[in-house]
């Protein structure tokens, strides 16, 4: 297979957008619950056009036909480092041939990313592209974040006597305490992931946001928030029919008794009543407690993989 890697230019954007849409349609055949919103070439084309004005990219050509492309977003301070991120709509390769295509494109573009001072490289991939995922694994990328989706049907889990009710401004102290506990949990072993402190009162005040508190013996032991069109997860899951789980946490002493399941069922029941069509969540892969729970009830849609490069490499290459 003879490939030619060239710079991503405006004349390639429509074909690149069409490739993304083909990949999304193939994924929705496997997961019909997904929204078709981002399967429109015009939608993806507009997103790529805006991105191409700010950052470089490459395309893979074979016999004059575009079979892959790769570009990314500059992140000034992701996890403390200047990074580049290629979301699931900003990269693509023909399914069934994606391994070599991705390898060749990254080999070309990564030199430019690194020379530009971006030492953390992140890419989001659709779960049905097994060859593509394998390619990035062999390129040194490891799983960092998982995005998942599920229907609004309630789940079957441990029965619990926990009392669940919606939080209001009067509950702000309990909400803040649980949020801070979640931040400490994520910063601890084995996740080691720092999250910015959230203004809980501001979050609760936003239209469409709702948070549920779980109580045992009068003590708030868990929480689960919902918001519409969260910008934290992958783009293809963001639309008006999708509700996103945020701020989910259960205190250590209350785990294993069905608290999280009770909160999830309350969230799903509320979302169904509000007319939503699906529920999504995202979590750090190394957060093993979260992974065990969410992977039980949600179907993966996107995997985000990351590679960190030794910053001394620039000095070495310049000698």
The low-confidence parts are none
Q: How many angstroms separate the termini?
A: 36 Å
Identify the CATH homologous superfamily of the largest domain.
Gcn5-related N-acetyltransferase (GNAT)
CATH architecture term of the largest domain: 3-Layer(aba) Sandwich
Please outline the major beta sheet.
Answer: 10 strands, mixed
- Write the H/E string, N to C: EHHEEEEEHEHEEHHEEEHEHEH
Strand content: 25-35%
Helix percentage: 25-40%
Query: With helices defined by DSSP (H or I, 4 residues minimum), what is the helix count?
Result: 9
The structure class reads alpha+beta
The strand line-up of the biggest sheet is 4-5-7-14-8-13-12-11-10-9
Query: Which CATH class of the largest domain?
Result: Alpha Beta
Looking at the structure, the CATH topology of the largest domain is: Aminopeptidase
Q: What's the alpha carbon Rg, rounded to whole Å? A: 21 Å
What is the count of distinct domains?
2
> What is the overall shape?
globular
Mean pLDDT: 94
What is the number of strand segments?
14
Explain how this protein is built.
By secondary structure, the chain is of the alpha+beta class. It has two domains: 4-140, Aminopeptidase; 163-301, Gcn5-related N-acetyltransferase (GNAT) (Aminopeptidase, 3-Layer(aba) Sandwich), CATH 3.40.630. It is 34% helix and 30% strand. The chain has nine helices and 14 strands. Strand 2 (57-62) and strand 3 form a beta hairpin. Helix 1 (13-30) crosses helix 2 and helix 3 crosses helix 4. The protein is globular, with a radius of gyration of 21 Å. It starts with a strand and ends with a helix.
């Amino acid at each position: 297979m003879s490939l030619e890697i060239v710079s991503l230019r405006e004349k390639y954007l429509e074909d690149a957008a069409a490739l993304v849409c083909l990949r999304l349609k193939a994924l929705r055949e496997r997961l019909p619950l997904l929204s078709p919103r981002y399967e429109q070439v015009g939608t993806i084309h507009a997103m790529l056009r805006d991105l191409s004005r700010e950052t470089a990219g490459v395309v893979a050509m074979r016999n004059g036909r575009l079979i892959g492309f790769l570009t990314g977003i500059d992140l000034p301070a992701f996890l403390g480092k200047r990074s580049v991120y290629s979301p699931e709509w900003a990269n693509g390769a023909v399914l069934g041939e994606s391994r070599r295509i991705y390898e060749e494109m990254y080999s070309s573009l990564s030199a430019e990313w690194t020379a530009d001072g971006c030492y953390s490289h992140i890419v989001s991939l659709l779960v049905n592209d097994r060859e593509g995922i394998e390619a990035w694994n062999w390129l040194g990328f490891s799983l960092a974040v998982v995005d998942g989706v599920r229907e609004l049907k309630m789940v079957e889990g441990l029965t619990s006597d926990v009392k669940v009710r919606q939080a209001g401004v009067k509950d702000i102290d309990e909400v803040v305490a649980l949020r801070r506990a979640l931040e400490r949990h994520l910063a601890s072993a084995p996740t080691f992931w720092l999250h910015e402190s959230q203004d809980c009162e501001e979050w609760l005040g936003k239209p469409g946001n709702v948070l549920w508190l779980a109580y045992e013996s009068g003590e708030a032991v868990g929480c689960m928030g919902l918001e519409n069109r969260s910008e934290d997860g992958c783009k293809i899951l963001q639309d008006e029919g999708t509700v996103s789980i945020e701020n989910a946490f259960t205190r250590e002493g209350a785990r294993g008794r069905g608290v999280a399941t009770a909160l999830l069922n309350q969230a799903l029941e509320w979302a169904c009543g509000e007319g939503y069509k699906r529920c999504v969540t995202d979590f750090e892969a190394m957060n093993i407690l979260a992974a065990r729970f969410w992977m039980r009830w949600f179907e993966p849609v996107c995997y985000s993989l990351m590679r960190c490069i030794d910053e001394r490499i620039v000095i070495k290459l310049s000698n």
